[in-house]
């Protein structure tokens, strides 16, 4: 494997801050702390080398510009930069902003638009559609609450790894606040299940087995929190978007299928807590201090956002297919 050349490492090379230039009898000396690099030269070549070193000190010239302006030393520029780089005396002075990079604020708007488009074209809510036409059963609604309960119960443990990956103090504090705000919400949703006749005594729900898509959502959130923080930040809003139309219809539909107010009230209370704490804006808050996100990183996150949207749609399909079976085990506890 060949090491990258000088022209691959630098666009606008410059001497590192703190490097001093001094003349010597046989050339030029570069002083950096206790380190010294002597460049031997004499006569006219010494003046030319001094001009080149001064240009490196300024750091406003590309390598091609240096070759044009210092033609007598054109063939020596690459070897000189390689040696200075080896000694840690030279660095890059200008970093060009990629044309396809986005700030955190711009990317937040972009992924929200992407999620809306993905939902409209590929992931319409079956639960909502079936409530509209009256075909959603009582068992399917209970199944929805069970899968929701599992996700909410696991959320703090899935969010926590992001604390060790936080890329700024501000981000760490934001994740901490979000984590604390998610604690014990499963107790509220357990009351919802109890009202529907689900036995929650003696920790029985600890053995609840989620549907594959519910487990996949949990796994994705936990993996991103630990291994790809940008994806973690970027998908959180998908779990916190308020479903106003869904909740409005749910409030009247529960009574139609024989579910008491004690079932729907905790679901609405949990939604109201999320709204009051601005959980929908958690992604915007976490992305806000990112100055530049490369196209490569954007592409990874875009795929993960769409995958999460599709998995959420798949979760609804699985809820309907499993809990709609006449012999379905509810809750999914197999002991």
Automatic annotation (TrEMBL):
InterPro entries: Haem_Oase-like_multi-hlx. This is Heme oxygenase-like protein. It comes from Paraburkholderia silvatlantica. The lineage of its organism: Bacteria, Pseudomonadati, Pseudomonadota, Betaproteobacteria, Burkholderiales.
């Amino acid at each position: 494997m060949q090491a990258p050349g000088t022209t691959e490492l630098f666009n606008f090379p410059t001497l590192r801050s703190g490097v001093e230039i001094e003349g010597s009898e046989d050339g030029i000396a570069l002083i950096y702390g206790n380190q010294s690099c002597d460049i031997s030269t004499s006569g006219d070549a010494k003046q030319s080398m001094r001009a080149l070193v001064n240009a490196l000190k300024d750091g406003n010239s590309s390598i091609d510009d240096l070759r044009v302006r210092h033609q007598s030393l054109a063939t020596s520029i690459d070897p000189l930069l390689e040696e200075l780089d080896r000694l840690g005396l030279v660095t890059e002075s200008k970093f060009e902003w990629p044309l396809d990079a986005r700030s955190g604020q711009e990317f937040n708007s972009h992924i929200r638009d992407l999620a809306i488009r993905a939902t409209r074209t590929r992931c319409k809510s079956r639960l909502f559609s079936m409530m509209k036409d009256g075909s959603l059963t009582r068992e399917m609604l209970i199944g929805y609450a069970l899968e929701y309960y599992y996700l909410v119960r696991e959320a703090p443990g899935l969010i926590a790894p992001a604390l060790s990956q936080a890329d700024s103090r501000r981000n760490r504090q934001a994740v901490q606040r979000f984590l604390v705000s998610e604690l014990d919400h499963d107790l509220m949703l357990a009351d919802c299940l109890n009202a529907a006749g689900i036995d929650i005594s003696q920790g029985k729900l600890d053995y609840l087995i989620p549907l594959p898509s519910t487990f996949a959502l949990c796994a994705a959130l936990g993996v991103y929190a630990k291994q790809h923080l940008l994806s973690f930040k970027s998908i959180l809003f998908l779990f916190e978007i308020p479903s106003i139309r869904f909740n409005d219809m749910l409030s009247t539909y529960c009574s139609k299928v024989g579910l008491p107010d004690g079932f729907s009230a905790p679901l609405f209370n949990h939604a109201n807590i999320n709204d009051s704490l601005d959980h929908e804006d958690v992604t915007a808050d976490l992305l806000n201090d990112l100055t530049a996100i490369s196209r490569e990183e954007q592409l990874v996150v875009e795929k993960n956002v769409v995958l999460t949207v599709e998995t959420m749609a798949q979760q609804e399909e699985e809820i309907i297919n499993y809990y709609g079976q006449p012999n379905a085990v509810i809750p999914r506890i197999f002991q």
